[in-house]
Amino acid sequence: MAELYPCSPRIEIDELPYFPRLVEKARLFAAGDLHPELHDNLGKGMDLWTCQFLGIDYEELKKVVLEGASTEDAYSWAQENGLKRPDFEKNWFCSYLLNRGFRDNLSEHLAMRVKESGFEDKEGIYSFCDYIDADEGRA
User: Fold this and answer.
1) Is the pTM of this model over 0.90?
2) Is 94 part of a structural domain of the chain?
3) If DSSP codes are grouped into helix, strand and coil, which group holds residue 16?
4) Are residues 42 and 109 both part of a single domain?
5) Of 13, 14, 24, 57, whose CA–CA distance to 132 is shortest?
6) 56-109 tens-digit pLDDT
7) Which helix (H) or strand (E) holds 24?
8) In terms of residue numbers, what domain contains 77?
9) Whether residues 74 and 124 fall in one domain
């Protein structure tokens, strides 16, 4: 069994970050290749927030992905079956997701994770997206 990390949470589709990571996590888990550190949070946290923003159910999206949908096809399915959001809501959500942990109610949790990982001296970890990229070896 491989222990792989999905793509960065910053990778976008249609200017929406995280969705490609969400899809890749589902694929890797089904194949038995997703890094075990990520198993407990499948369908939770950023996975859940992204699905809630799109107005879709995580389990339904996962089913579409595991039936063979590409990331683009899964996103099209989400657009067809979810909520229609105006651009200003999408812009707000993107900022929210990319900056989660920066001077908000998760700041203390982020600081704890940074300390646990030994990243206190690492520059540029201001949000959970920064932390994920650092933790998975991308930054």
Assistant:
1) yes
2) no
3) strand
4) no
5) 24
6) 999 999 999 999 999 999 999 999 999 999 999 999 999 999 999 999 999 999
7) helix 19-30
8) 1-87
9) no
